[in-house]
Amino acid sequence: MKVGVIGAGAWGTALAIVSAQGGADVVLWSYDGEYKHFECAGVPENMKLTANMDDLSDADAWLIVTPAAFFRETLAKATNSYKGQPIIICTKGAERETGAFTSEMLHDVLPQCHEFGVLSGPQFAAEVACGVPTGSTLAGTESARKIGKQILNKLYIEESDDVIGAEMCGMGKNAVALICGYNSIAAQGENDRAMIFTRAWNEVVELGLAAGAKERTFLRLCGIGDLFLSATSATSRNYAGGMAIARGEEPAGTVEGLFALNGLIERAKTLNVATPVLIEMKEKMGL
Predict the structure, then answer these.
(1) Can you tell me the distance from the alpha carbon of 85 to that of 148, in angstroms, rounded to the nearest whole number?
(2) Domain locations in the chain?
(3) Which residues contact 216 (CB under 8 A, 6 or more apart)?
(4) Is 163-284 the same fold as 2-160?
(5) How far apart are CA 138 and CA 1, in angstroms?
(6) From 36, 92, 154, 173, active-site residue
(7) What is the pTM of this model?
(8) From CA 249, how far away is CA 81, in angstroms rounded?
(9) Burial of 266 (0-12, 13-18, 19+ CB in 10 A)
(10) Which of 190, 196, 201, 204 has the most CB atoms within 10 Å of its CB?
């Protein structure tokens, strides 16, 4: 099996490595010809790097792992190379300008893609690349889930048909992790931190249910599992980004929670869902 991985940041490179270790021939696309290096993991012989999107045209499936901020732009670059393969979206978050989920951007740019899934769960890229046990939720069509499990056979995969729920969890945990990082410094005490954390996540769940998500999804790896990982550790870019904001510093790297928080609030307006905590925290952080 040949797999195309679009996006060579930390998460894209980690998924390319584990896909190759699982037996697939992997072509990793990088816009600048660079990829993330992990000290604990070398580059498998069956993994190749390219800056030419056409090298992915004959792949049996695509994994898209580009940041949400560049998701639509990257898909547009891939249009002429896409030949109807199943697509697994491995990006968490939403478009800053529109609040659109990644699956919605996929349908906009590649409407001919009918077999797709969303991978979401508690996943620090370095640990995945180094072989630390990792589990994820794979939500999508039956055929996309099947090929996704074949490709990512080194990971523990739980299946779901709740794409919106998985995406809402990924987007929501980014925003809540940002808030938790901020409150680790700015909150008045531990009680205050716990209260805001709980109320903020409850608003995410209410918003998800209003959008058509299933309640159980928020209890799965893509929900509480990813929330636990991202909202309790400074290793999380979003948590660390929130800490930086509380210190009056510029967050480092791509902090998806910055886009996700605004996206959640805007989507809540369209669904008539109250999100007072999310709005208050956005204002406190000056976003």
Answers:
(1) 12
(2) 2-160, 163-284
(3) 162
(4) no
(5) 19
(6) 173
(7) 0.93
(8) 41
(9) middle
(10) 204
Helices (H), ranges, the chain: 10-21, 71-78, 102-109, 125-129, 142-151, 163-186, 190-210, 226-230, 237-246, 256-271, 276-284
Q: Encode pLDDT of 176-221 as tens digits.
A: 999 999 999 999 999 999 999 999 999 999 999 999 999 999 999 9
Q: How far is CA 145 from CA 35, 149, 150, in A?
A: 27, 6, 9
- In terms of Cα–Cα distance, which of 40, 39, 36 is closest to 16? 36
Residues listed for the chain: 287
Query: Is residue 173 annotated as a catalytic residue, yes or no?
Result: yes
Report, in angstroms and rounded to the nearest whole number, the Rg of the chain calculated over CA atoms. 18
200 close to 206: Cβ distance less than 8 angstroms: no
Which one-letter DSSP state was computed for residue 218?
G
Which residue's entry shows tokens 């072989």?
131
Closest to 4 measured CA to CA, from 73, 70, 54, 39: 54
Q: Is 200 exposed, middle or buried (0-12, 13-18, 19+ CB in 10 A)?
A: buried
Residue 94 is classified by DSSP as B
Residues 40-69 pLDDT 10s? 888 899 999 999 999 999 999 999 999 988
Structure tokens at 9: 């940041």
Q: Which fold has domain 163-284?
A: N-(1-d-carboxylethyl)-l-norvaline Dehydrogenase; domain 2 (1.10.1040)
Identity of the residue numbered 229:
L
How many CB atoms sit inside 10 A of residue 228's CB?
13
**CATH topology classification for 2-160:** Rossmann fold (3.40.50)
